[in-house]
Amino acid sequence: QGQFVESGGGSVQPGGSLRLSCAASRRIFSLYPMGWYRQAPGKQREQVASITNVGTTNYVDSVKGRFTISRDNAKTTTYLQMNRLKPEDTAVYYCNIFRPADGSVMASWGQGTQVTVSS
Fold first, then answer.
1. What is the pLDDT of residues 9-43, one digit of tens each?
2. What's the start-to-end Cα distance of the chain, in Å?
3. In the β-sheet with 4-7, what is the strand arrangement from edge to edge?
4. Which of 113, 90, 115 has its CA nearest to residue 23?
């Protein structure tokens, strides 16, 4: 059984918004930083946003100012609010924990959630 359950994806027009959720087990949620990743067809998976267990955030340049990562410790859930979506944001989105030292993920991947941005 996977460690994460991603949800909230869908199809939107350019400029639209979506809010993704990632539910994680309590055992790992509070110990490690969480990242949101995406993989578009024919491309490598990339981390787009991360948040530490004390709330420090980081974003890839392509989503800065449009995406916001947050976490609810009581619900052991991480969120990705995506605004002003672009067609190039189309991908399957995943969450995972990672090692700060080298960025390597530490758990198996969930099923992901599909985001499609198209007019």
1. 999 999 999 999 999 988 888 788 999 999 999 99
2. 36
3. 4-7, 18-24, 77-82, 67-72
4. 113
